[in-house]
Amino acid sequence: MSICKFCQINDANKKNTHYLTDAIIRSCLNIEGSNNREKGLYFAINSKNPFIEFNFQRLDEHTIENAIGRKPTDEEIENAKRIPFSVDYIFCSDCERKFTDIETKFIEKVLPKFRQDDLTNLNSISISDNLICRNFFYLQIFRSTICEEVFDLPKDFVDKLRKILFENIEDYTIPLSVTYLQTTGGQENYTENYVGYTSDKNPFIIFMNDFIVQCYDRNENIKHLELYGLNNDNYNDFININEEEFIFNIFQNDERKAFLSNLITNEKVKQTIINFENYFDEIWIRLFGTKAPSYQKEKYIKSVANQSQEKLNSLSQEEMYNFTFSYLTKLLNIKE
Q: Highest taxon of the source (predicted)?
């Protein structure tokens, strides 16, 4: 048995450790925002992968098809069974109790100020329990980089986080920015939010339902990342460093919807078109032994762009390849 990644002493004997706090993300992943564990749909936003990878847990095929606009592949269904934002045998039972203590303080003392209070017309909120906030978000960041390949942090930064949490060090030096997405209109609307990671560096970004966490590994690496409206020109106002109170940026419900729609539409279409280009080159090279002329590729991309955004957002890899093959068959007058 391997050694616990947190204490680095005990055997890693704990099964089913949620590395993103279950009480935060559960209502996003579940049908109608319910609090049942591990029943729903989520995906990762990864610029290294041209596809948004959908995953689902214990959903019927009709519900899945309605959610993603097509039938799920066998591979997607198998991936879903393996990735419920939890891991086995990475941490130990003793450390799990420490994690729970950090999470419970945030859930009991801080979370109600967001999910139970009326935040209408507020663009920020400051929390006096800043150490509770920091430790909670440090924990999400640390566990995520241990458990998620895409969320890759520098080793010295990971070691710093581990030491702060393990040795109960009061630290206020790591630059953190957290945006709260006000989600109104009923529990089912939490399913409009996202859970996952981007592959950006400084800030490193975690989507966890109605909270979006951004962190920097050091002060000199702070920079503006617009990310479809997540950070405006005043982004520095919401970066916590040696703060007396922890400030949260707040997106009102309409702003939340606009941001999430803008994010997913642009990221998916952008990466999809890149992948279409790659398929076009791949097939052209097989036919002619060289890359396609730029004017041919431009004509092809125009035909891609003429597809509806809805259709582009729901294409599988196989459908994308078939579209490209069909286009070239017609262009070159090849009889199938």
A: Bacteria
